[in-house]
Amino acid sequence: MTMNASRRHFLGSAAAATALFSMRPAAAAPVLKVPEIDRLEIRIVIDSGHELYLDKTEHPLVKVERSGIGLVGNGRSLQAIDSQWGLSLHLKSTRDGVVRQQLLDFGSTPDVMLNNFKVLGLDAAQLDGLILSHGHGDHYGGLIGFLEAYRANLRPNIPLVVGGEDNFCFQLQKGPDGQPKQFTVLDRADLQRLSVNWSTAEKPRLIGDHAFSTGAVPRTTFEKVQANTLVEYGQHDGAGCDAGHFSAAELKGNLESNQHWHEHATCFHLRGRGLVMISSCGHGGMVNAVRQAQKVSGIQKVHALIGGFHLYPAQASYVTEVAQAVKALQPDLVLPMHCSGTNFVAAAHELMPDQLITSTTGNRLTLGV
């Protein structure tokens, strides 16, 4: 089945999608044989805000280390951790004593990315790979600047896994006059110039030997993409995405509300605990992404849901519905970040107080403790 045919298949009707959501995932052979890891440390390099003091620093299933200001130099001066609208996570996994490190997303701008990477004491030479979740500037905006600053330190053959073709599309936003204006684009020429080998995760796949990608997330539940940028399918000025990769319906009118067809989630199987799913924005829906991770791995137990849930623009009633659906998944931990929105945090606090962990830029979260 082609990508477009597959997409039409899993979009279906609203009624069918709701019915699918109410069913438990059917038992089926997993798509991938995913590895088990023993431990996962997540360092929040960039999030949309940071605080020195937050609640719930003690939890039996996660070690939470708070950090709001980093001390650098000779001990007589402070260099602050910065925050911005965006996300970047340093992932350090351990399996049978073998450690792997991945950098997932890169915030909006190189200055904040580079500042925080330095202040947090991270080492580019130790990175095994780079991951881009989707084609929004607040997730890849710091990538090229990071590569320019650290390319000599990075491994010569370091891989970059991107969601898919639409990660390279031109992104546009409406200006004050209501007219769309070019926002940003990830240019493949920059990756070629910096000798970075990239590959896509349009289909489920392993990422290195510790993690796996959901691939493109089917839209099978009531969840819907919330307002975000416009996208231009096509190329000009040497950049953009291959229009031939998309259906005629997607190409009609050229400028479309971005559906993030190729956004993927990065996942781990934590030994004895279950799935850890990191959704950098989750435009296609958190429950949809979990269902896909379960199908891909064959693992039904959800240990932790982490990252941006892209609910900040949503109506409060819809946010509550999503929070109830997340609760029904029975996760052990829910750690919203970035674009999740205060309404979701409030709903999760009401519905899942024992599972909710709040976090901020600079924090380190360790699972498998």
SSE order and pairing:
Layout: H1 3-11, H2 14-22, E1 36-37, E2 39-46, E3 62-65, E4 69-72, E5 77-80, E6 88-95, E7 98-104, H3 110-119, E8 129-131, H4 137-140, H5 143-150, E9 159-162, E10 170-174, E11 180-184, H6 188-193, E12 197-200, E13 205-207, E14 211-213, E15 230-232, E16 235-236, E17 239-240, H7 248-251, E18 255-257, E19 266-270, E20 274-279, H8 286-297, E21 302-308, H9 316-328, E22 333-337, H10 342-351, E23 364-367
Parallel strand pairs: 1-19, 7-8, 8-9, 9-12, 20-21, 21-22
Antiparallel strand pairs: 2-6, 2-23, 3-23, 4-5, 6-7, 10-11, 10-15, 13-14, 14-19, 15-18, 16-17, 19-20
Helix pairs in contact: 3-5, 9-10
- Give the N-terminus to C-terminus distance in angstroms: 42 Å
Instruction: Quickly count the helices.
Output: 10
Side by side, the strands of the main sheet go: 3-23-2-6-7-8-9-12
> Given the C-alpha coordinates, what overall shape results?
globular
Which segments are poorly predicted (pLDDT under 50) over 5 or more consecutive residues? 1-26
- How many strand units? 23
Structural class: alpha/beta
Q: Taking Cα atoms only, what radius of gyration do you get, to the nearest Å?
A: 20 Å
Pfam families: Lactamase_B
GO molecular function, one term: transferase activity
Domain Metallo-beta-lactamase: 105-156
InterPro entries: DHPS-like_MBL-fold, Metallo-B-lactamas, Metallo-beta-lactamase_dom, RibonucZ/Hydroxyglut_hydro, TAT_signal
